[in-house]
Amino acid sequence: MEENREIHALLHLIDDPDEEVFGAVSTRLIDFGKGIIPNLENLWENTISEDVQTRIELLIHRLHYRDLTEEIEAWSKNIHHDLLTGALLVARFQYPEMVTTQVYQDIEKLRRNIWLELNTYLTPLEQVNVLTSILYNYFNIKGTEVAYQQPEEFLINKQLETKRGNAIANGILYLVLSELLDIPVRAINIPKQFVLSYFKTDYDFSRHTENFMYKSEFFIDPISGQVFTHKDVETYFKRINVPPVTSYFKPLSNKRIIQVLLEEFSKCFSEESNKYKKQELMALASLLDD
Questions:
Q1: Count of C-beta atoms within a 10 Å radius of residue 190
Q2: Residues in a beta bridge with 251
């Protein structure tokens, strides 16, 4: 952005020790929008003060965050909540200038490899075995338990790049591929777990009028792709001493899945220096409330 007198003056006030002055300067700079970022980056490169650099980094983050808030609001209001788009929006919180081309190429490669192995004569279990084999053996993706010390394991771009994701990220990737291939796999609301369920083909996802529990053929652990039976799930509920009520087996909407991703991702930022990120992520999650 062309540096006029006002912008020049504001940039030179970023180092003001008075927090109230800095707050007013920040608000005005953010009003200019993302076009001011090159000016801020140039200032960052030409200052030796780490405190000023930190302030500039925070300003740039706030500019990107404002745009991200608007995009997530728009995604939430859309009739169709595309899961991959939602996951990429979450990744942009950490990587605002991310180029998504490689993500789409990786997913298309996976989709095509799975599609080539599928046919109409396969049983539900055989369909899932094909998807699981391509994802975990051919593509060699690794799954981990959710660890809040590893924020990148929540983000689909880093998951595809490193071939390592936690249960939520792997589950989202599994769901994206299932949707592209018309395989009726959905996430369900099992306590303390991110679990997928293969629903019977006659299940009406638009109405949810039937007993969800008995419309599931079987369940899938997205960490490894391992399949679980109804008996396995019943045993889990007994172990955690929770009754297996019907609502736990209701398919989660894509909107709710992205909300869970934001809520869980926010727990990675509990240190004092990063708490603002936790608050921002929870604010984004609240935009997806029904």
A1: 19
A2: 188
